[in-house]
Amino acid sequence: MFKTRITEMFGIEYPIIQGAMQWLSRAELVSAVSNAGGLGVISSLTFPTVKELRQEIKKTRDMTDKPFAVNVTLLPTAHPVNYDEYINAAIEEGVNIIETSGRSPEPYMKLLKEAKVKVMHKVARVRDARTAERLGVDAITITGVEAGGHPGMEEVTSLVRIPIAVDSVKIPVIAAGGISDARGFIAALALGAEGVLMGTRFMASQECPLHHKIKEWLLQAKETDTLMIERSIENAARVLKTDFSLRLLQMEERGATLEELLPLISGERGKRSYISGDVNDAVIFCGQVAGLIHEIPSVGEIIDGIISEAKLIGERLHNPGISK
Predict the structure, then answer these.
(1) From CA 287, how far away is CA 218, in angstroms rounded?
(2) Does the predicted TM-score (pTM) go above 0.85?
(3) What CATH number belongs to 5-210+295-318?
(4) Among 264, 148, 267, 284, which residue's Cα sits nearest to residue 213?
(5) Domain coordinates of the chain in residue numbers?
(6) What region, left, alpha or beta, does residue 37 occupy, with left being phi > 0 and alpha being psi -120 to 50 degrees?
């Protein structure tokens, strides 16, 4: 019922993709998503060395025989990263789906195409979707402003951005931002997307290696309990509204420099917070769909629930007279 070009391209049962979340998208979560019929995605920059990435790919393969992908985020980092090495490591380990994000994948497209891997590229602007298609990527993910992480500087919602992207490219579009249940899944498909990507929903899963205190915090969060930071450095990020993130926002409003902000927004600081459970020690990336999350099920229960309810919604839409 939910077969699309995305399920065919990636060889997965359902067009549901797990967002690549640094420090969290490890073998346990990735394999659980793939085993449940979706596409798990390893966050490559979680691993300081290529050797560690190779080990995580092997570990993931030991836990699932289903397809999974590796994300390579091309954003500037505190320490230089040889992205070619990370991409080559994934290819050599037999990964045939690579997700790129953060910057244009153009410098790496020759390498990716020669390896005959499928490439999906995540964008936050429609013009970048067109560029990615021209460069030869196989699918694009378009992100609305509701999304956790870095949804771009333009404040355009998924409801508007998805159909514009679909109308602008011929390759499959994956929808991200504001999706956590069957209603969002069906809405994205109705807007023309051929798959969905979810990050925040999978944060609050049993298999996600996020500290239980932060997971419990997510259950209490409302849709209004996130805010945007890092606009002053043109790297807008949606995070949980905490004392820490509010202090960062105040610093930006006072004109804090990049040098002042960097120690507070560094990835290593976030890693420490995810492990300790202290929400006031670092920024916690989170989408507005936190307001829709009220339990911490297994990944399998999340995906099975979405598909089961989506089928019921489909039946109801075909027969509008049927009561809810």
Answers:
(1) 10
(2) yes
(3) 3.20.20.70
(4) 284
(5) 5-210+295-318, 212-288
(6) left
Give the pLDDT band (50/70/90) at residue 270: confident
The 3-class SS string of the chain reads CCCCHHHHHHCCCCCEEECCCCCCCCHHHHHHHHHCCCEEEEEHHHCCCHHHHHHHHHHHHHHCCCCEEEEEECCCCCCCCCHHHHHHHHHHCCCCEEEEECCCCHHHHHHHHHCCCEEEEEECCHHHHHHHHHHCCCEEEEECCCCCECCCCCCCCHHHHHHHHHHHCCCCEEEECCCCCHHHHHHHHHCCCCEEEECHHHHCCCCCCCCHHHHHHHHHCCCCCEEEECHHHCCCEEEECCHHHHHHHHHHHCCCCHHHHHHHHCHHHHHHHHHHCCCCCCCCECCHHHHHCCCCCCHHHHHHHHHHHHHHHHHHHHCCCCCC
73-87, 198-212, 221-235: which has the minimum mean pLDDT? 73-87
Half-sphere exposure of 66 (CA within 13 A, CB side): 21
The answer to whether 14 touches 307, Cβ cutoff 8 Å, is yes
